Amino acid sequence: MKLHKSGICAAVAALAVLLPAGAALADVKAGVDAWSAGNYDVAVREWREPARAGDADAQFNLAQAYRLGRGVPADDAQAETLYAQAAAQGHLRAADQYGLLLFQKGEREKAMPYVAGAAGRGDPRAQYLLGIAHFNGDLADKDWPRAYALLTLANSTGLPQAASALAQMDEYIPLEQRQQAQALAVSIRADAESRRARDLAAVDLALGAMEEPAALAPAPAPAPKPVQVHKAPVTVAALATPAPASPKPAAPKAPATKPAGEWKVQLGSFAVAGNADRMWRQLAARPELAGRDKLEKASGKLTVLYAAGYSSRSEAASACASLKRGGQDCLVTR
Fold it and tell me: How far apart are CA 299 and CA 231, in angstroms?
């Protein structure tokens, strides 16, 4: 068995010597052209030999074909093997896909270095997974501002799972940390763009700066399945308990002495605007907010909720202090 394996290795080595690098590149490019034309069987045939000879682009493209079941029967195990081979050679897209595939099959600890790398280059699926990990504190250090920032970035690309995760985080992460997350998200985005450019430049140098690097088969992997966000510790202040529902009068009469003023109590900021309405419904019956106006303002990608109409700072501060004693975080502002 060992002799047979050595014979195969020798044959492959001989083939690698006989096959010029330009010819291998041409086969990969020919495969991409066939793939783009919908000739998946032809594309796979063009990629097989370069992939066996160690061409990372061919390995990645062939992995995509197995992942999608185009030109070959779908085979996640074969796709994983090929992604791993290409990733080991520094192929960034292969490394990103490999990490997501490992995570989806349950090998989460093994996947996290790849997920973190992909998130660092701006992949929204990886940002989603890493953000959940930072929120839960299981696969990454617990860091709620970073978790919220990463989910905000993933949500900005339209990743559907991110919105529901943010809605859960809105209930547990304090207002100050959510505000910190907005500045952090800007910094993470800038770092991701810089890192991606730097990583790609490093790959080009490692490959000898080919004049025409082979194009890659356009086949993004499906978005990861939603990950359950762990329930926050009981010591973390969550939303105040909703008051019992009661029917409102059809035409409520405004108080004769409705307070007026420019001071406000900031009640929360939300990546999902509907959560601001939900919080107001939960808090509107509290005496600290009696007769106050609901005010919403846009702040970047956040909706900020205020109770407006306090005549002085001391009046707003007294209301905020009372709210905090009831478990509702808040800030006094003008």
Answer: 27
> CATH number of the domain at 263-333, out of 1.10.1370.40, 3.30.70.1070, 3.40.50.10540, 3.30.1330.30?
3.30.70.1070
Q: Tokens 């690698």 appear where?
A: 16
Distance CA 213, CA 82 (A): 19
264 touches 292 (CB < 8 A): no
Q: Determine contact, residues 293/307, Cβ cutoff 8 Å.
A: yes
Give the pair of three-digit tokens for residue 97: 């896909």
Nearest to 269 by CA among 168, 146, 179: 179
Read off the pTM.
0.60
- Write the DSSP string, 225-277: PP-PPPPPPTTS--PPPPPPP-PPPSSPPPPTT----SEEEEEEEESSTHHHH
- CA-to-CA distance for 126 and 231, rounded, in angstroms? 21
- Which residue's structure tokens are 């080919």? 210
Q: Which residues pair with 268 in a beta bridge?
A: 305
- Show the tokens assigned to 132: 């959940």
Task: Flag the least confident range among 14-28, 37-51, 221-235.
Answer: 221-235
Q: What residues contact residue 12 under an 8 Å CB cut-off, 6+ apart?
A: 52, 53
Q: Is the distance from CB of 110 to CB of 125 less than 8 angstroms?
A: no
Pairing of strands 331-333, 293-299: unpaired
Q: Give the Cα-Cα-Cα angle 233, 237, 239 (nearest 5 degrees).
A: 115
Query: Could you tell me where in the chain the CATH 1.25.40.10 domains are found?
Result: 12-206
304-317 residue pLDDT tens: 889 998 888 888 88
Q: Which CATH superfamily is domain 12-206 in?
A: Tetratricopeptide repeat domain (1.25.40.10)
The torsion angles phi and psi of 38, rounded to 5 degrees, stand at 85, 5
